[in-house]
Amino acid sequence: MNTQNLLKIAKQFGAPIYVYDAETIASQYTRLTNAFKGVGSLRLNYAAKALSNISILRLMNQLGSGLDTVSIQEVKLGLMAGFKPESIIFTPNGVSLEEIEEASALGVQINIDNLSILEQFGSKHPDVPVCIRINPHVMAGGNSKISVGHIDSKFGISIHQIPHLLRIVDLTKMNINGIHMHTGSDILDIDVFLYASEILFDTAKNFKNLEFIDFGSGFKVPYKTGDIETNIEELGKKLTTRFNQFCEEYGKELTLAFEPGKFLVSQAGHFLAKVNVVKQTTSTVFASVDSGFNHLIRPMLYGASHEILNISNPKGRERYYSVVGYICETDTFGSNRRINEISEGDILCFKSAGAYCFTMSSNYNSRFRPAEILWYKGQAHLIRERETFDDILRNQVDVKDLFIKPKPAVVK
Q1: I need a surface site. Which of 13, 78, 110, 127 has the fewest CB within 10 A?
Q2: Which residues are within 8 A (CB) of 382 and not within 5 positions of it... i.e. 6 or more apart?
Q3: Domain ranges (residues) in the chain
Q4: Binding site membership for substrate: which residues?
Q5: In CATH terms, is domain 267-383 a member of 2.40.37.10?
């Protein structure tokens, strides 16, 4: 998207606001499918948690994607968006047996990541096909909070527990139709990913009725100019060769599955915020915007870096600013950034704001969550209205009658 279109959207719909470019999403989807075009059967299951607006889900469905879900609510959103149940995989963590049974009753692919639920579900529903999430004990990911394949992770069944796993499968006679792993987000080292894949291949040999092997995702995307990213083409070439070889060894063609989220939507997202105040202190120039970590928490939560542009003054002289929000806590989007000269009322654009941005927003400080726009075929489409004060109060129950002072007793 160009700067003028973003400025028009900010003027028409107001700021702060999220804007997503459908063309970028489609381009990333095509890039990933092309990287694995040598695989006979490929399935991309979009990770709904990255950006779960129902219009985005409908776009993914139109592109031919499946859906990766982690909650029963995401499963229901996917069905509402038009996904067929068999194209949805349900990969929760730490949820109840009842939630897994509810998802199973809807006809989606179940993926179980712990022995307790595996035994309970297998005992009650031995005929329901189940995928098993393995923890390969391989450390991958750009931050400890998003690295999920290591030995101390809460995710997956440890490879050291394979004998116990096989015992449960044998005793329950359950049908295992898939094997899954996810090592973490922001994967850069392809060799580490391929090493973890070998562990998954070795595990897969224990199961005779597999239909697919799911390698998760976590591919790194660039968040600023010159940033490094996963070489998806190189990974595609190497993993395709090894996967096809394994299928020959296994004796049947399996489906290779991935669960891309950030890879598909991150770079498609732009977050626009208006500058309220430019404040000079003894050592810093602050640009305070009409937003905060209630709308975009990644910088404060992960130390994530989003490139910030002043789209109101793209040719202005560059100066150093610390861009901060209006939340009543330390609330910093970026420190000492070189940005074209900022004036009060300018619109700043936070790039790569498509993944884990709006979906992690909140009403902290009783602020409204922003609107969302889908830029599709040259037009801006409102896909979420900005919240109002009624939304803040919607589910609150005002027990004001509890606090009515009793009338003083009348002494006769």
Answers
A1: 127
A2: 13, 371, 372, 373
A3: 22-265, 267-383
A4: 298, 302, 329, 356
A5: yes
